Fold this protein.
Amino acid sequence: MSLTSRDVEKIAHLARLGITDQEKPVYASNLSKIVEFVDQLARARTDGVTPMAHPLEGLTQRLRADEVTEADGREKYQRNAAAVQAGLYLVPKVIE
């Protein structure tokens, strides 16, 4: 799939990017290469390939102990809040 300058304009608008007319062909080319690569990956044959449950199959990762290292400071932090109820921060309604 080859992207056009118009496609790049739409993408730039959605991403809120300012792109000059001179940059549009470069972006179109680079983005087209990315889309073509993704299409190529999608065409890869994966029949009979067992999904891996762990990237280090047969190996183990060293993990740190799951221990509490900090004190609970929720009450301290909520003292600065404008409004709190049942341990939750109350904020003004912005969507109706």
The mean pLDDT is 90.
